[in-house]
Amino acid sequence: PGPDAHVGYGKIILLGEHSVVYGHHAIAAPIGLSVRAEATRTTSSAEPVIADWSVDGSLREPIREDISHRVAALITGRLGVPAAGLRVEVFSDLPRASGLGASAAFAVAVIRAVASRFDLRLSDAEVSNLAFECERIVHGTPSGIDNTVATFGRPVLFRKTDAAGGHEIHDIVTPYPIPVAIGLSGVHALTSQTVSLVRTAWQKNPARYDSIFAQIDALVLAGVDALRHGDIAELGELMNINQGLLNALQVSSPEIEQLVAIARRAGALGAKLTGGGGGGAMIAIAEPGGTEPIIAAMRRAGFATYLTELR
Ligand code: PMV
Hints:
Keywords: ATP-binding, Kinase, Lipid biosynthesis, Lipid metabolism, NAD, Nucleotide-binding, Oxidoreductase, Transferase. This is 3-hydroxy-3-methylglutaryl coenzyme A reductase. It comes from Cryobacterium shii. The chain is of the alpha+beta class. It has two domains: about 5-170, Ribosomal Protein S5, domain 2; about 180-310, GHMP kinase, C-terminal domain (Alpha-Beta Plaits, 2-Layer Sandwich), CATH 3.30.70. Helices cover about 40% and strands about 25% of the residues. It is built from nine helices and ten strands. Strands 1, 2, 3, 4, 5 and 6 form a six-stranded mixed beta sheet that branches. The longest helix is centred in the C-terminal third of the chain and has 24 residues, at about 205-230.
């Protein structure tokens, strides 16, 4: 079955965050957490409203009003539908600013809900492209990987080919589902900030950073093979080296390092930050059946966790 008509998918980046912004490959996959939206039209002439609610109906930290207005104006403008009186309610079980792609999932859910309210049939590519434009409002210079997985909801090998949103995607295959333990550092981090820190460092010394990005690219390509063969030990080693290089890019954090240490001590074959870093989330893999001790150890240390599967 294709993606759900009102949903945007949360994601993890298995290998390749940050270097993906510079045109290198990355592997990303959806997780079981997502954002759902419902759009209604009222007869009022008021500005469009995007109300952000959690699954249980309690109001969450609302999105900044100026951003929600710009996103609503962009979406209604591009879809050619009236903005006045539009109300979009968002139901999310994805934690925000956690490196799990919540902002892209949010944009995809809102676009799909608005399109469906006005009986517009958008292709997944159209949804993804418009979500990329929304991400530019929130993020600045996104690679496009978040909106891609948020839209298609399946694991992909991704590479950006130009700054305007051009990219290539290939499906990722695994012989059997690979369990992934996710730990939330509890520290909210803005991807736009870590991306701009890396950019500043790269601008000062492009050769030094380009060589780190190229090393990460090689890990990603090796990861595609490891996934194809279901070689979890090899995949884990690649993730561990990727974490070392993310640390070299200075986007790790003390909480992420703690989560990585806990996961490895509990038997993880690979553990690294996922997404923008600076806080956010950590992912760890183990042989099937091996993720429960990792989840338990992170919980004991007081971290929120989530178990998903790469399939
Ligand atoms: O923090 P997230 O889930 O939005 O992931 C960001 C991934 C980066 O590679 C750091 C940025 C990007 O646009 O690809």
